[in-house]
Amino acid sequence: MTGIADAIEMYNQGRFQEVEQICSAISSESESYAQAQHLLGLLAYQHGMLAEAEVFLLNAIALRPREAMFRNHLGSVQCALGRLDDGIATYRRAIKLNPRLADTHFNLGNALKRKGEFLKAQRAMKRALELNPDLDGAKLNLAILLRDQGQTEKAEKLLERAMQQHPDHVSIASNYLFNLNYHITDGQRLFDAHLKFAETHAVKTGLSPTSYVNIPDKNRRLRIGYVSADLYRHSVAYFFEPLLRQHQRDNFEIFCYSSVIKTDDITERLQGFTDVWRDVSQLPDRSVAEQVRQDGIDILVDLGGHTSIQRLLVFAEKPAPIQVTYLGYPNTTGLSSIDYRFTDIKADPAGNERWHAERLLRLPGGFLCFSALNEAPDVEMAPNNAKGYITFGCFNAMAKIQPELIQLWSEILKAVPDSRLLLKNTALSDKEVQKQLLLAFRKHGVGANRLMLHGRLASPQDHLSLYHQVDIALDSFPYNGTTTSFEALWMGVPLVSLYGDLHASRVGLSILSSIGLEDLTASTPEQYVTVAKVLADDRQRLEDLRLSLRDLVEQKLCDAESFTCRVEDAFRKIWQEWCEKQNRD
């Protein structure tokens, strides 16, 4: 007779329908009833039925209150429901019942990170690894926690060890590359690291097709496929939506291959701008590649690179005759199967080809178009008028605030008497992270009275309103801001940016050049300090910029129709080149 032991085995085998049938038939009088309720809770959780999952798991816990694993899974459901405090309390109760459950420490760490308690999350991840040194998810998440606190060199070392222990783990390898962009300025080192990724992971996907069914007609309607995990309320969506919205449907048929795990209103809106939307979040890379082939995509575009839930191994299969990487990642992918990388002449000047596996295609007028922030609050007068002193600001992630940058910002504060620096990012929700940052500034002679630190705010409007307190935005280096730079300019706050040789350190230059403010960029640290001081001393220019920047940005950087035409011209150009090659062959 089939019982709970069989149901557990079937669950582990993924035979979920049979598990549900067995568990639903188990009587409430049975000794197996608690375990059956537990399994039903797991099934409901996997199918997104969170309220039902919670009921099943509470039933199981009521029958077996000292079963730690039941509480572990209940904590996951509560966190998925957005009740982080309940989830954290449930995890801690599970740990009291069984302190050696590595998975529970891991889950607790993830929940604490979501709440903004980074140091506590870090301790939980370390404990998970002490209990289970092979828990690769904990290694990856601990490295991300270190990175998100600005400790990118420590994260690099941890990821290096994790790659040695898990050489086939693609996410660890991609996070290693992503982390390098925050503190490495050696283009050749970065390029070599990306090539190594391709050699280690991309070659394992098998042979690329040597022929395609795509008809090499230069003038026909093209099928464009976009691959992304960021098609929700994410910075990538702010730049992708104008392009998606303006595509000329007579000439282009638009497919989106979405790996979004948790959709939202932005996801729904983006879906409305596509011809075909495919949710591939649960599909393996090879299946996605096969779907792309079946769809007959002519040009496949990666929007993520080595960020988030990367799908680069889809591109390693070469399912489309032309493949492009654009927007989401500030570097080469390292994959020879990706033919082009869209950029511009300021972000990637002549010579940057030597650090790319892809051919650089430079879009005229800049590589970015931003969604106008129509729901943003109105621009207000510069705060120095009322306060009598200049407030600098940076809203970039802590990972971008490197030690050398702290030193530069300290020099700026000392060069501009009585000035303040307002910093805002998620990591600063943690008081311990704030203390670490204050100590770093103190080492350069800047006291806490010169700094204003803000963590996560309640709404996007609150976030944008905080720019009312900033006179001048300071860009991060060597990894410039992008979304934060547009937000500052939209709110009338001029940006001072330091640029280097690599794309990640030239985005500020690209943005400011597009609106005629290249004089606010600097090529050396010393010039960066000087430009900031000169602008701070010019109160009339600050007022003029405060009143004019939003209109300037809207005209130059939010012109979706013109920008989309330039991208479509690029698509048509590379398609025609492919057609000519096919006809010659």
Notes on the structure:
- The chain has 585 residues and is of the alpha/beta class.
- It folds into 3 domains: 99 residues, Serine Threonine Protein Phosphatase 5, Tetratricopeptide repeat (Alpha Horseshoe), CATH 1.25.40.10; 174 residues, Rossmann fold, CATH 3.40.50.11380; 175 residues, 3-Layer(aba) Sandwich (Rossmann fold), CATH 3.40.50.2000.
- The chain is 51% helix and 10% strand.
- The strands form 2 sheets. A 7-stranded parallel sheet has the order 3-2-1-4-5-6-7, sandwiched between helices.
- Strand 4, helix 16 and strand 5 form a beta-alpha-beta unit.
- The longest helix has 25 residues.
- It is globular and about 80 Å long.
Our count of helices gives: 25
CATH architecture of the largest domain: 3-Layer(aba) Sandwich
What is the CATH top level name of the largest domain?
Alpha Beta
Number of strands: 13
Explain briefly what this protein structure is:
By secondary structure, this protein is of the alpha/beta class. 51% of the residues lie in helices and 10% in strands.
Helix and strand layout, with pairings?
Elements (H helix, E strand, L loop, with lengths): L3 H9 L3 H10 L7 H14 L3 H14 L4 H13 L3 H14 L4 H14 L2 H14 L4 H13 L3 H14 L4 H11 L6 H15 L20 E7 L6 H12 L5 E7 L6 H7 L4 E4 L5 H11 L3 E4 L9 H5 L5 E4 L14 E4 L15 E4 L21 H4 L3 E4 L8 H13 L4 E5 L6 H12 L8 E4 L5 H6 L6 E3 L8 H8 L4 E4 L8 H8 L6 E2 L2 H13 L1 H19 L2 H25 L1
Parallel strand pairs: 1-2, 1-4, 2-3, 4-5, 5-6, 6-7, 8-9, 8-11, 9-10, 11-12, 12-13
